[in-house]
Amino acid sequence: MAAREAGGVLPPLPLKAGDPYYFCLTDASAKALATARISLDAVKPNTVVTYKAHTCMRGTLTKGQINTDLTGLTGEGTGGFAFQRDGRRAEFTVPRVALRPDMTGSWTAEHKGRRIEMFTSTKVGAKLSLTKVSAERLPMTLTKQGADALAGTFGTSPVPSGTPFFEGNASFDVLNTLTSPLTTKP
Q: Which residue has the higher pLDDT, 103 or 109?
């Protein structure tokens, strides 16, 4: 028996990957981007789509886990998102989320070779049940680092830090994760 298991701490529970997630512009951020003539783009394999009447970046969840030490949940998605205007482009790739037990979160991405915190979120719209962890219209607030990254490309951020920028929509299937080891045949 491993020392971790002997101490009572189980390894993290992996979450089912492959489900889509959406970062949808809020009405205010869509208007601010349009006024600044900046468009939302996606970093492949992600795409820009209309979802629930909003312009969104759609990606796929590649991995996630619930930490059995009750420190929260982490997840990672494909590709990324970008903003562009007149040949200038700000890319944010390998998006990751870390949700704490109270369901507040931090959203990071790689930009110009380093990982930055782009957004924070409150628990509004986040749900945890025995079968699923999900976010529906989760307000993702632009951080100072995120606003500075946009300003570094465009001279100014079209949306000030502290403003809801995206609404996040995603889900992880927890029940499938817990029952699949029990139902897998040798």
A: 109
